[in-house]
Amino acid sequence: MDGPPRARPDRDRPDREKSIPSSPTFYTGRSEFYDHIATLESAVENTHSVLRSLQLLPLPAFARDSLPPAQPMWKSRDTMSSMFMRKLTTARYRRLITLLAQLDEYERIADAAGHIEMQNGIASILSLFERPDKAAQLARKHIKLAKFDKYGRTHTVGKRKESTARVWIIPPVVDNPFARTESSHPKVDVTMSQILVNNIPLNEFFASPADRARIVRPLKLAGVLGAFNVFALVRGGGTTGQSGAITHGIARGIVAHVPEVEIILRKAKLLRRDPRMVERKKTGMAKARKRYTWVKR
């Protein structure tokens, strides 16, 4: 009786080469995601070193504040999940967005410094993760500039809480003080510019200094305080809402006269309506959040 079959010698077996994975992250189960993460981390590190060599990093606070505003429009988590062929958790999506935000900041620094080649390289990477309708969404957010009438005035509408304000802004017309006049009446000194609210001077209509400071804030930020006459008609609400509505209208009008200050006013959040409203009173409570004192007996 013959014994068990002998194993074939190794020389009779065909040589089998061990396949090498195409990516070092193959065994993680999320190779697509981690490959993109590695690419972004490498781009962030290389860009950071180049900006440091150009002495553009670290930026002082005043230079960082003067950068163009960030306008990110990243793809949603579900869209990126289909892009990576794996469902993204919140932590992984946040990690990806953090790297993209860092690259976006470096792109704005390169843009402000005039390094077009570096900016284009970063933009090509960011475009892979941006929404395809980014341009349309940004155009929708862009405010419509106020139009000028035949007198050079701008008419804008501002809103806050229950108040609505219509604001007219016009540069003051200063006559030549040395021009001859045929009138025998003495010359009356007129202020260079004024702010009238419902045909009443600002300091008389608003007794609170906080309300007056709120109204002149966009003029101060834009550096045009005293450069324009402002006439406002406001209706509804209280003093806080009315002053906020006038501020909103003034900010929108200034952008039409001085387009260069749009970034400053946008960063100060003066070009959009303040969405905060009075919270309603709840049943069984003294006010919106105040509760009655609990009495045991």
UniProtKB/TrEMBL annotation:
Entry keyword annotation includes Nucleotidyltransferase: no
GO MF annotation terms: RNA binding; structural constituent of ribosome
Residue stretches of biased makeup (Basic and acidic residues): 1-19
Assigned GO CC terms: mitochondrial small ribosomal subunit
GO biological process, one term: translation
Chain segments carrying region Disordered: 1-25
Organism whose genome encodes this protein: Heterobasidion irregulare (strain TC 32-1)
Coiled coil: none
Family: Belongs to the universal ribosomal protein uS9 family.
PROSITE patterns from the UniProt entry: RIBOSOMAL_S9
SUPFAM superfamilies tied to this protein: Ribosomal protein S5 domain 2-like
The name this protein goes by in its record: Ribosomal protein S5 domain 2-like protein
Taxonomic superkingdom: Eukaryota
Keywords: Ribonucleoprotein, Ribosomal protein
